[in-house]
């Protein structure tokens, strides 16, 4: 390791992770331990399932998957909104050593095509509403995955068949891994190129979540509510905690944020997790007078940057609860910097430094680096935050991940940050060109490709115009061909793009025509300067 860079590395004492036999064996034993506790509650119907019930369902599903030819390291996909049933094949994948790679049914078909092509699943569990798009995708890819419908079907296997009694269920032994650094689950993320990647999270990384965060006692002690489905790292990362503590996972098929106050009261929610956009929406009009949140012990939110003012306001909406926000990445199996609500000093400094995302957590090495010179930086110097840990992913599925690690083995997060003298971190900006609209990653490259295809466009880039609620509103910045000047309107190009993309990818900030792009020293279009000039009214 470079000695010059070594002096500014921040190290937090590591944590002891017991010698476990993999996620499947761990979950199996924890379901047995908590068998009389409520594991799932459907908040739409009030129906509940115990850990003993989900264990039986998971074993039966595991045996059914094996009988259909699913073997260790085969990939299965779950395409479903959040439901009691969708979690069972997820658990079962760990029980038999398969690897799940879930997708959100709300994704545009072009994204689903790319993701399924990337992982080539052997089996797809799908809700009835998404059967048609899955059929079309498999046909386009000439892929022969088995379809299992979570619901009614006259054409395919029904998931209900997987839950029938099996003569071997009482003899079932879960799959044991020999190397905890093997892939346990794939969670999709997007890299700086904008193309979704399959992040391979390890058994060690996922099980490490059971021991990393001291606030787990607060979050998982009773019932927990999150609206995230299994496409998101938050839903995946919360599962080990639910299993370890025997938490009651409240399940909602939809997301009516205005009803969340009533849900907290009705189901005595102890731990609440929301993404940043959901938090903003829920607290839009403050806490209702009739709200009873006395059961709420901790509120966790994150996934996108928040301002100092927003953090202070959120705290005012939940004055009795511990507020928990921080910084994380899918590649790091979740949270990597946060406040520790079990530490009185952190609780005090959380209020004194509301713009900070917290302090480093155990099990990681951290450094701030000048991305141009690779020089390691000290306190109050802005640079790229890089991390090193055994909890990190083992790579991207079937993709080269060499360039995301530096020469010292640190993962390049792509985010600009700094830390102060107390080692509290502050996130400043993103190096990555990805935009984020209401927690959805948007690829500027994808939108630019569509814009470039219009016969009137000479050159273009897509930038994000900051929005106080949504995050980024994409804007197309365009130089027209001379032949099209004066004949093509901004609205025409905006409609041209919006008609070809999903709801969250639309050009909400419109189109801006310009005559010339600012360039970098190497002659490339400067996205940073273009965005700055647009926001300052210079273009």
UniProtKB/TrEMBL annotation:
Instruction: Please report the organism this UniProt entry assigns to the protein.
Output: Ignelater luminosus
Q: Which PROSITE patterns match?
A: AMP_BINDING (PS00455)
Task: Tell me yes or no: is Ligase among this UniProt entry's keywords.
Answer: yes
Q: Where is the signal peptide?
A: none
Look up keyword Ligase and say if it applies.
Answer: yes
**Which Pfam family would be a valid example here?**
AMP-binding
- The family this protein is said to belong to: Belongs to the ATP-dependent AMP-binding enzyme family.
Q: Which residues form the AMP-binding enzyme C-terminal domain?
A: 446-524
Output this protein's name: Luciferin 4-monooxygenase
Where would I find the AMP-dependent synthetase/ligase domain in this sequence? 29-397
Which UniProt keyword terms apply here?
Ligase, Peroxisome
């Amino acid at each position: 390791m470079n000695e010059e860079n070594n002096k500014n590395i921040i190290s937090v004492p590591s944590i002891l992770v017991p010698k476990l036999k993999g996620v499947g064996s761990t979950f199996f034993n924890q379901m047995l331990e908590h068998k009389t506790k409520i594991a799932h509650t459907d908040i739409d119907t009030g129906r509940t399932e115990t850990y003993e019930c989900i264990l039986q369902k998971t074993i039966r599903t595991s045996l059914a998957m094996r009988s259909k030819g699913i073997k260790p390291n085969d990939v299965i996909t779950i395409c479903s909104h959040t439901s009691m049933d969708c979690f069972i094949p997820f658990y079962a994948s760990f029980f038999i050593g398969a690897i799940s790679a879930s997708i959100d049914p709300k994704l545009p078909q072009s994204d689903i095509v790319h993701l399924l092509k990337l992982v080539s699943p052997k089996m797809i569990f799908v809700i009835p509403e998404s059967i048609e798009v899955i059929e079309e995708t498999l046909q386009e890819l000439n892929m022969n995955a088995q379809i299992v419908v979570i619901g009614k079907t006259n054409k395919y296997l029904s998931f209900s068949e997987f839950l029938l009694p099996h003569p071997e269920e009482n003899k079932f032994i879960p799959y044991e891994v020999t190397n905890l650094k093997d892939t346990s689950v794939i969670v999709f993320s997007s890299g700086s190129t904008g193309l979704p990647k399959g992040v391979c999270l390890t058994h060690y990384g996922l099980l490490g979540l059971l021991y990393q965060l001291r606030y787990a006692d607060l979050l998982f002690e009773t019932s927990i509510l999150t609206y995230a489905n299994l496409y998101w790292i938050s839903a995946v990362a919360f599962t080990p905690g639910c299993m370890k503590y025997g938490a009651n996972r409240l399940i909602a098929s939809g997301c009516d944020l205005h009803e969340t106050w009533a849900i907290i009261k009705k189901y005595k929610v102890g731990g609440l997790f929301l993404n940043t956009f959901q938090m903003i929406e829920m607290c839009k009009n403050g806490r209702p007078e009739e709200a009873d949140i006395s059961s709420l012990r901790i509120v966790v939110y994150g996934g996108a940057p928040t301002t100092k003012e927003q953090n202070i306001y959120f705290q005012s909406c939940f004055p009795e609860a511990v507020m928990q926000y921080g910084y994380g990445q899918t590649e790091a199996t979740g949270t990597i910097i946060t406040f520790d609500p079990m530490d009185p000093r952190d609780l005090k400094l959380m209020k004194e430094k509301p713009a900070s995302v917290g302090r480093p957590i155990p099990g990681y090495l951290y450094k701030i680096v000048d991305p141009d010179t690779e020089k390691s930086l000290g306190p109050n110097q802005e640079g790229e935050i890089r991390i090193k840990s055994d909890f990190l992913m083992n790579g991207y599925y079937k993709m080269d991940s060499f360039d995301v690690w530096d020469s010292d083995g640190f993962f390049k997060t792509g985010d600009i940050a700094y830390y102060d003298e107390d080692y509290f971190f502050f996130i400043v900006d993103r190096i990555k060109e990805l935009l984020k609209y209401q927690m959805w990653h948007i690829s500027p490259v994808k939108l630019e490709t569509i814009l470039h295809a219009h016969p009137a466009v000479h050159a273009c880039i897509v930038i994000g115009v900051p929005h106080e609620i949504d995050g980024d509103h994409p804007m197309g910045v365009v130089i027209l061909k001379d032949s099209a000047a004066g004949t093509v309107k901004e609205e025409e190009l905006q409609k041209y793009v919006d008609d070809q993309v999903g709801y969250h990818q639309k050009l909400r900030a419109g189109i801006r025509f310009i005559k010339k792009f600012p360039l970098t020293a190497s002659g490339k279009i400067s996205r940073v300067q273009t965005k700055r000039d647009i926001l300052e009214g210079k273009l």
